[in-house]
Amino acid sequence: MNFSKLPLSKEMLQTIDSLGYKNMTPVQAESLPLILEGKDVIAEAKTGSGKTAAFGIGLLQNLDVKKFRVQALVLCPTRELADQVAKELRRLARFQHNIKILMLTGGESFGKQLGSLAHQAHIIVGTPGRVLKHLSKESLELSNLKTLVFDEADRMLDMGFIEEIKSVLSFVPKERQTLLFSATYDDEILDISKKFQKNALHVKTTQKEGENKIQQEFYETNNKVETLIKIFATYKPKNIIVFTNTKLEAKELAESLVQNKIDALAIHGDLEQYERNDVLVQFANKSCPVLVATDVAARGLDIKELSMVVNYDLPHTLETYTHRIGRTGRAGAEGIAITLYDSREIEKIEPYEERQECHFLDTSILKNMQGFDMKPEYVTLVIEGGKKDKIRAGDILGALTGDTGLKGSSIGKIDLYDKQSYVAIENGLIDEAHKKLKNGKIKNKKFSIWIL
Ligand code: ADP
Ligand code: MG
């Protein structure tokens, strides 16, 4: 189970050590030796099981850094997931010099991506649609590709990417390594494997990963909003994702929660990229305790220490249920998964009634919601300047805390993007912080500042 038993470079072992990865996770232990031998692998493993590092270490070891051509392509179902993967790959590549990793996903400027591609890259992480668009327009060239990865393949198929995937495959060399990761296996997945992989070796570790420690509770109610707030009042969770089945519901539920003094934001497919980012940043930096999301929008969102997941709508399948609740109780921590259903949904609840781990409870055990409210710990300030302006976290911290400024302990997470930065400020101090940054300078320059 130890990484040092593998044929890895000194730099890679050093990186793994610096990331604090002591032992391989089950999926890494079973797939990495094969991946490093250059074999095609199809792996079934749960969310949060460390799949990214499994293929990431493999493709980084296989890279010829001096050859400045695309040698690895990772296809992901969503922008958020691609972003997660790119981040983990960058972490894994940090002791190998000059490795260029480029993201190609929809919802971002095509022209800007053209510019980045002109400068070449070693690794592309992208969504099938956008990657195909670049291939068709010949702005992306894959004749030097060595490793192709399908991450969350089941989800890509669910989302209807099959045609795009097939088309992308017509642009890649026959001689290559193909790795396929999926939370579930079905005929469609095996079909993809047969078509696009050579003698793929199967790895299945879902058993070994074991059940997360998740308390699963079900409540029948004909007033879901009220019951939801009572649940919050009873458990007082710090951060919660509430799942709805439709975008409209996500939006409406977030609005009703806010009307009931529960601070909430919605994330769904209708938001512009910048709006999604604003929402995700605020949820992750504790500026908003409740995120209402559709399944697609929440995919790939890796927020550690999520205290509660709520199925406001019953998921359509048991698999979606498992996926949703797997977001809490990670890394051995306890989590709570709540499912609400009304009298018309009783039939749909049957498959859960057979499961021993699902507890059916009566709403009368919940606390009253009277006077209960949920406010965020922090409020987010946006600075219209980022990495492109050479701003670093320390510059922002300095501008806020300098002279008679705020205490460092009042400042939360700082997120830097190319053209924007976000700073979480302790709730009561936001006006002070806003004034300080507006009147001051960062790196000797004035930037627009606003409160989210
Ligand atoms: P998934 O299988 O859902 O793609 P990820 O690859 O995103 O899971 O990994 C989940 C988390 O586990 C990440 O935060 C990652 O940094 C961490 N991780 C990966 N491998 C290890 C390891 N060997 N030891 C400890 N943590 C790890
Ligand atoms: Mg993953």
Tell me what portion of residues adopts beta-strand conformation. 15-25%
CATH topology of the largest domain: Rossmann fold
- For the biggest β-sheet, the strand order reads 3-4-2-5-6-1-7
The overall pLDDT, averaged over residues, is 91
Radius of gyration: 23 Å
Helix segment count?
18
SSE class: alpha/beta
Name every ligand kind in the structure.
Answer: adenosine-5'-diphosphate, magnesium ion
How many strand segments? 18
Could you please describe the fold and organization of this structure?
36% of the residues lie in helices and 19% in strands. With 452 residues, the chain is α/β, with parallel strands linked by helices. The protein has three domains: 3-204, 3-Layer(aba) Sandwich (Rossmann fold); 214-365, P-loop containing nucleotide triphosphate hydrolases (Rossmann fold), CATH 3.40.50; 378-451, RRM (RNA recognition motif) domain (Alpha-Beta Plaits, 2-Layer Sandwich). The strands form three sheets. Strands 3-4-2-5-6-1-7 form a seven-stranded parallel β-sheet, sandwiched between helices. It has a seven-stranded parallel β-sheet with strand order 10-11-9-12-13-8-14, with helices on both faces. The protein is globular. Magnesium ion binds next to helix 3.
Features:
452 residues; alpha/beta; Rossmann fold; Alpha-Beta Plaits; 3 domains; 7-stranded parallel β-sheet; 18 strands; binds adenosine-5'-diphosphate; binds magnesium ion
Strand-helix topology:
Elements: H1 10-18, H2 26-36, E1 41-44, H3 51-61, E2 72-75, H4 79-92, E3 101-104, H5 110-118, E4 123-126, H6 128-136, E5 147-150, H7 153-158, H8 162-169, E6 177-182, H9 187-196, E7 201-204, H10 206-209, E8 214-220, H11 224-235, E9 240-243, H12 247-259, E10 264-267, H13 273-284, E11 290-293, H14 295-298, E12 308-311, H15 318-325, E13 335-341, H16 350-353, E14 358-361, E15 378-383, H17 393-401, E16 411-416, E17 421-426, H18 430-439, E18 449-451
Parallel strand pairs: 1-6, 1-7, 2-4, 2-5, 3-4, 5-6, 8-13, 8-14, 9-11, 9-12, 10-11, 12-13
Antiparallel strand pairs: 15-17, 15-18, 16-17
